[in-house]
Amino acid sequence: MTSSSTSVPPSRRRWLTLVIVGLAQLMVVLDATIVNIALPAAQADLEFSNGDRQWVITAYSLAFGSLLLLGGRLSDLIGRKLTFVVGLIGFAVASAWAGAAPDFATLVAARALQGAFGALLAPTALAVLTTTFTVPKERARAFGVFGAIAGAGGAVGLLLGGVLTEKLDWRWNLYINVVIAAVAVIGVLVFVPRIERHGPRPRLDVPGTLLVSAGLFGVVFGFANAETDGWESPLAWGTLIAAAVLLAAFVAWQSRAAHPLLPLQVLRDRNRAAAYISILVAGAGMFGIFLFVTYFLQVSLAFSPIQTGLAFLPMIVMLVLAAQLSTNVFLPRFGPKIMVTIGMTLGVLGMLLLTRLDLDSSYVANVLPALVVMGSAMGTIMPGSMQTATLGVDRHFAGVASALVNTSQQVGGSIGTAMLNTIAAAAATDYITAHAPASPEVIASAAVASYSTVYWWATGIFAVGAVVAGLLFRTRSETAALLAERPTPTDGAAEPVVAH
């Protein structure tokens, strides 16, 4: 057992570590949306087709989603500090390469490399936070900040992307990562302590790595293909079926592997499983906010990219406020069962408000209230779910448990991308068919009608999330009783905040 002096850094260093981890998380999260704003300019500059455009996004998602569990396990095996530095430097180099890309093929290859290093960086950042903050009250505050960054990063990406694209050049949407990574690397080297591993070092589970990486690749690729080619595409269904078989084989292998990539005891905890499902559901539902509200603001209300980014600021403010209130006041008192369920219910309300948007709607009267409610929803869902997903995990498994958080977000986003885009396209086509001929007014109304259909489906997604959270999460008293029967965590293993 390590002493507290070796497992917990001094107070000042501990909070500086949070700043560094937050920078890394912000870089990974905002990269998912900041490039969206730059795509039209990049397409005009590099002269690639509309059909090729989606690969700039998909290449990143494929590498990121399929390698997350490997990245999380590598941080467990070779050390968090080294993995963190390698991830930051690799992400910065890949970003610089993408920013300087002379052609479409180079841009796609660099984006895939970004995704690979992002898969190394994202779970390591969360694992560093998990093993750094072991005092329950401080841990709650740290995860409140981290959860706010995770939820708000997409909206920050929209704002920053708009400013960089309009004022500088689309390439700066990628170069900005070099600046952020440079600051974070210096911070890691100076302030993040190196924690020694005690006991034998396990080996990497190569068969498990191959199975889960191929399976997750199939999930992301299958849904991406369904988005572009439709659900009737044999390639989409074939890839998804193959992915299901590979993931089932992975689970079977993990039950008998000597050094499993994903120890199944990480998933057997009921609270932790509920947290992963909640993160997946929230990721799928939130896609309807960022993409379709952005379309509505820019196309229907004629907002510029910068105006669109600014329009999301109230949502960010409410998200940060709700995250801090949730982690510091409500979550310790009521537990995730109540708080995550309330957050999902707020998500239902926010989506219902969005279903009322039409061509006569205004931002202040109609869009703003919905964004404020959705900010409150995500600020309530994400911190509680992310804390619970990594609470009580053995230090040696913190990386892979953290990777599952990011995997849940990525898979949820992929499912949301494919499903909601397909629904929107079908709804727009049906509207135009029913209101022929297709005049500009009919096409504009069809777009808004398709967004409304998506918001109704997203309402259902959040409703399912509310039911799942209400049924699966243990009550605060049940969790406290269960923890009382367990031995005290050793080697810096984090104690669950819900017990206090």
Can you walk through the features of this model?
- Mean pLDDT is 78; it is low at 1-11 and 487-500.
- The protein contains 18 helices and no strands.
- α11 (270-300) packs parallel to α14 and α14 packs antiparallel against α15 (363-390).
- It starts with a helix and ends in a 15-residue tail after the last helix.
- It is globular.
- The longest helix is centred in the C-terminal third of the chain and has 37 residues, at 398-434.
- It is mainly α and 500 residues long.
- The chain folds into two domains: 7-193 and 261-499, MFS general substrate transporter like domains (Growth Hormone, Chain: A); 205-257.
- It is 81% helix and 0% strand.
Query: Architecture of the largest domain in CATH?
Result: Up-down Bundle
Q: Indicate the structural class.
A: mainly alpha
Q: Which regions have little confidence, pLDDT < 50, spanning 5+ residues?
A: 1-11, 487-500
N-C termini distance: 23 Å
CATH fold field value of the largest domain: Growth Hormone, Chain: A
